[in-house]
Amino acid sequence: MLVGTAAAAGMNGDCGSLKGLIVWKFVAALVVSLALQVGVNYANDYSDGVRGTDDERVGPMRLTASGTKPAAAVKRAAFIAFGVAAVCGLGLAITTSWWLIVVGAAAIAAGWFYTGGPRPYGYAGLGELFVFVFFGVVATTGSAFVQIERITPLTLLVSIPVGLLATALLVVNNLRDIPGDTVSGKRTLAVRLGDARTRVLYIAMMVAPFVAVPILCGISQRPAGSLSLFAILLVRKPVQRVIEGAKGKALIAVLGETGRVQLVFGVLLSIGLFIGG
């Protein structure tokens, strides 16, 4: 959200200190993004729980599998979150472009069918691809689109490192769950690749964004975006843990560290893009 909005700065002309950015559209898009994130987590909790996939889980507690909340209540929470995203997204579509309705419907469908429905794509090893597309390309370019009502090379370029770091989170999550997912028949990409190759994939996705930064900053002529390179200082610890063979609950810490890399990288890149816009 921050990166896409910052990339749009100045593209409609410099209209004061916010460089033409429309605050209410940013807030509405932020609500859509957060509601979709909440919705997909509740949906995963429900679907994995009723399928019995979480019976072998070593990660944080899930509501459905643990019996803390009834499955129906978790499912209802997922639909409420998706409903909030739909309402706010409709407001953006009315004032921006009706195509956003199509994009929003696709995002909600992707959130539900990741682990829901008769043939969940997350169980077929496609989760990482969809995370890259929706939490990277769609979220970043969509955030810019609601501001400037067009897609530009810059908004597409900056979505790539954002998508890679978002995908890295899922990769390490699925790395942790390889034993349980194998037993339950959940054929994630990590299960298909195996432990060793999944670790290589994670490392590549953590390093690639920092390789991409100089390229996108040079092409976009926004050199201040290189501020994001300072986030590499946070990469060593999670990558080292993965290289050294951390397994099971030890990978929960890697999840948190990966999230911090994503957050710091995104904030610094956003600041640089905004300054240069």
Q: What would you say this structure looks like, in words?
A:
- The chain has 277 residues and is an all-alpha fold.
- It has one domain.
- It contains 12 helices and no strands.
- The protein has helices spanning 2-7, 23-51, 63-66, 71-95, 99-113, 127-148, 153-176, 178-184, 189-193, 195-220, 236-243, 250-276.
- Helix 5 runs antiparallel to helix 6 and helix 11 packs antiparallel against helix 12.
- The radius of gyration is 19 Å and the shape is globular.
- It starts with a helix and ends with a helix.
- The model has no long low-confidence stretch (mean pLDDT 91).
Quick structural gist:
The chain is mostly helical and 277 residues long.
The gross shape turns out to be globular
- What is the helical fraction, as a range of percent? over 70%
Low-confidence stretches: none
Structural class: mainly alpha
E-strand count? 0
Proportion of strand residues: under 5%
Termini gap: 16 Å
Per DSSP, the total helix count is 12
**Average residue pLDDT:** 91
Biggest sheet record: none
Helix-strand pattern: HHHHHHHHHHHH
Rg calc: 19 Å
Overall number of structural domains: 1
Key terms for this structure?
277 residues, mainly alpha, 12 helices
Q: Which helices and strands appear, and what pairs or packs with what?
A:
Blueprint: H1 2-7, H2 23-51, H3 63-66, H4 71-95, H5 99-113, H6 127-148, H7 153-176, H8 178-184, H9 189-193, H10 195-220, H11 236-243, H12 250-276
Helix pairs in contact: 2-4, 2-5, 2-6, 4-5, 5-6, 6-7, 7-10, 7-12, 11-12
